[in-house]
Specification:
The chain is α+β, with helices and mostly antiparallel strands. The protein has one domain (28-217). It is 17% helix and 38% strand. It has an eleven-stranded mixed beta sheet. The radius of gyration is 16 Å and the shape is globular.
Length: 218
């Protein structure tokens, strides 16, 4: 892919690549970073950036999710290179923090308690509804579009669940976003809502949008 040097007009992800620290309170903290890319930006190019630009690393994932998405375990150095590339090469970006939802916490607790047949995050969804996200939410206020995540990267106590919206989908003004799992399908509102966030972003057919959901466990 051709490397571009257009700087994004926004700050680095909270407590992640930018060096800021996630809240010290126990639990987990999530940040969604949406980045816009030119039409024609492909899933293959996105995955290459997600592993720090190394084709050798791209070809050797450390595992796969239940639905076949590659999983990469990144070193601190690889994470820093990856974030520099993503932030430097994207056209622009948007960052928002989430509310961890009780439904997702229940899944995690059941897993730790030895529960079987459970699944973590599976779909990233955007919506157009209005309201204030709360821990008791079980779905978005008005879900508009969702996509299965395509790549996962883990570094220390941080996981990044990544999805890519091509230029021909999800073109509207978003107000919210969420992460669904444990039984989530392509059907709107299906599955357990792990996190809910305000997400003020307008996507058009003139851009491709990547969504990186960074979750930090304290």
């Amino acid at each position: 892919m051709e490397l571009r040097t257009i700087p994004p007009s926004w700050r680095n992800p909270a407590g992640l690549a930018g060096g800021r620290t996630a809240p010290a309170a126990p639990g987990w903290h999530g940040v969604i970073v949406g980045r816009s890319w030119p039409v024609g930006f492909t899933e293959a190019e996105y995955r290459l950036l997600l592993v720090g630009g190394s084709r050798r690393r791209l070809a050797h994932p450390d595992g796969y999710s239940a639905h076949g998405a590659p999983l990469y375990l990144l070193t601190d150095a690889q994470r820093r290179v990856r974030e520099r590339l993503l932030n430097r090469l994207c056209l622009d970006g948007y960052e928002t923090e989430n509310i961890a939802c009780n439904a997702g916490r229940a899944v995690l607790l059941s897993f730790l308690g030895g529960g079987t047949g459970l699944a973590g995050p599976q779909y990233f969804a955007v919506g157009t509804g209005s309201g204030t996200p709360a821990a008791t939410d079980t779905q978005l206020f008005a879900e508009y579009y969702r996509a299965a995540y395509s790549t996962t990267a883990i570094n220390g106590n941080q996981i990044d669940v990544s999805t890519l919206f091509q230029s021909n989908v999800a073109n509207t003004t978003y107000t919210e976003a969420g992460l669904f799992g444990n039984g989530a399908t392509a059907t709107a509102n299906s599955g357990a809502l792990f996190a809910h966030a305000l997400y003020a972003y307008t996507k058009s057919s003139g851009t491709v949008l990547s969504n990186d959901y960074y979750i930090v466990f304290n």
